[in-house]
Amino acid sequence: MDPSTHSAKSRIATSQSGHSESRSLPAVTSWVIRCPNWVGDIVMATPVFESLRATYPDAEITALIRPYARGIIENSPWFDHILDCDDKSLRGLQEIRRNGSVRKWQAGLLLTNTTHSFLTLKLAGVKRTYGYKRNTRRFFLTDGPSPQTDGKVYKALPMQDYYLELCRYLGMTLPAKPKPKLYIDDALSAFGQRYLAEKGVLPGDMLIGLNPGASFGSSKCWPAGNFARLAELLQKLYDCKIILLVGPGEEGIAAQIVAASGASIINTADDLLNLAQLKPVIKQCNLLITNDTGPRHFAVAFDVPAVVLMGPTNPLYTASHLDRTSVIRLDLPCSPCHKKICPYKHHACMNEITPNMVVTASSKYLTASIT
Q1: Which domains, and CATH codes, for the chain?
Q2: Which of 108, 176, 203, 329 could form a disulfide with 15 if both were Cys (CB 3.0 to 4.6 A apart)?
């Protein structure tokens, strides 16, 4: 078995079937599923992976996913193969086509919305392709629902519900209690324990993760100075360890936070943990404080409390599994704008969230240290 192959003998049991108005899928022995592109969307789509495996327990299922994101779904029981999806280059498309010829995919499930992703599966020889009927591809898909609309625009829905509606429509077995799930094998768990130990985190230490970046754009980012002050307040109140979770291109933000803060901060910028390595680190946190970006959903998957700082995005897209998540969002007339850069230059939706607000929201999840 090659490194891109994961044993799928151990499956997760699910129990709830689709509704009566759903469709019946044909017998399929080989599936390919085109995963979403954004980190958070992938995590929110994991109930779909669970549903597909429950519906087709003996089928060979291949996940087609962006190379940087494969670590998110590694070690899961849903897939027999995980393949890198480079559909932006001729070489990448040829590789996908070659794999389609070898795997002989009979059906494909699209969790992306573009016509390009549909054409990629057609190039790979997939004859039956299912997904939302959007854009030009709606004329060519084998089947799938039309997105819900609110007037002339698509209706904002929690992404987990959006993805699962596709499964329900197609008559798949739905999870009894759908919730994002991620998996860690023994080697990855050992890495996480060793990494934190090397950074001075001892068993029993309170560990708070700060996630200051956002690949979407600067509009989602809380100011570095606020993170710096927050670290000081938390460390004084809780005598905790603070770990700064830093992604590619976020080294500058991390450096600003460390330089401006009087707190002792573990800066992961020099290590640049990949998304697989990030899983055991977040799992060990007592709390994650984060911009509205992918790692917040890792916390949900591992039942880690989270405080989310939200500005330009519509909270409806992530309005599920908030029992251990506090979202701090200001009700401003310009929000949500969904712009990568604040069009008004004031960035009030994030700048007006204060460190004290975050400390207050965090307090419900933390126990003050005895001094």
Answers
A1: 30-169 (3.40.50.2000), 194-363 (3.40.50.2000)
A2: 176
CA distances from 278 to 73, 158, 180, 285 (A): 12, 24, 16, 11
Rounded Cα distance, 313 and 336, in Å: 5
Long-range residue pairs from 225-228, CB within 8 A, at least 24 positions apart, any chain: 225/256, 225/260, 226/353, 226/354, 226/355, 226/358, 227/257, 227/261, 228/256, 228/257, 228/258, 228/259, 228/260, 228/261, 228/263
- Closest among 299, 351, 349 to 326, alpha carbons compared: 299
How confident is the model over 57-86, as pLDDT tens digits? Answer: 999 999 999 999 999 999 999 999 999 999
Terminal Cα-to-Cα distance of the chain (whole angstroms): 54
Q: Please, which residues have CB within 8 angstroms of residue 284's CB and are 6 or more apart in sequence?
A: 192, 193, 196, 201, 207
